[in-house]
Design a protein that fits this description.
With 106 residues, the protein is α+β, with helices and mostly antiparallel strands. The protein has two domains: 49 residues, no CATH class; 33 residues, no CATH class. It has a three-stranded antiparallel beta sheet with strand order 1-3-2, with helices on one face. The longest helix is centred in the last third of the chain and has 16 residues. InterPro entries: TACO1_YebC-like_2nd/3rd_dom (IPR048300), Transcrip_reg_TACO1-like (IPR002876), Transcrip_reg_TACO1-like_dom3 (IPR026564), YebC-like (IPR029072).
C-alpha cells in the first residue's frame, strides 16, 4: 500500500499498520509504503481506512526476495527490450522481474 505524505503523519501510519499486522513500513520521500503478507492485506487496509488514512495505491503484488543487479549497459538494454516486448504482447497480463536495473538513456 502506498500512502501520500499529505494523507497522514508517519507515526500514525506506522502505528496503525504495524498493529494491524503489516510486515514492514518504509518512509519514502513521496510517501509511505506498507508491506504485508497477502493474508494480512485486507485487515491492514481496513485498519488504515478506519483511522481515516486513505491509500493512494493498494494492491497485492509480487515483490522479489532476491534481485539480480544489472550494471552492464548491454545487459540492461537487452532486459529492457525483452520486458518491453513481453509487456506489449496481447497474451501477457502481468510481468514480474528480479532484474534490478535503471533504464539507460538512448
Amino acid at each position: 500500500m502506498i500512502i501520500s505524505r499529505e494523507g497522514a503523519s508517519e507515526d500514525s501510519v506506522m502505528e496503525v499498520a504495524l498493529e494491524a499486522g503489516a510486515e514492514d513500513f518504509k518512509a519514502e520521500p513521496e510517501g509511505f509504503e506498507v508491506l504485508t503478507d497477502p493474508g494480512h492485506f485486507e485487515p491492514v487496509h481496513k485498519a488504515l481506512e478506519a483511522k481515516g488514512i486513505k491509500c493512494a495505491s493498494a494492491q497485492v503484488t509480487y515483490i522479489p526476495s532476491l534481485t539480480v543487479p544489472l550494471s552492464d549497459p548491454g545487459a540492461v538494454s537487452a532486459v529492457t527490450k525483452l520486458t518491453d516486448a513481453l509487456e506489449d504482447h496481447d497474451d501477457v497480463k502481468e510481468l514480474y522481474s528480479t532484474a534490478n536495473s535503471r533504464r539507460m538513456p538512448g
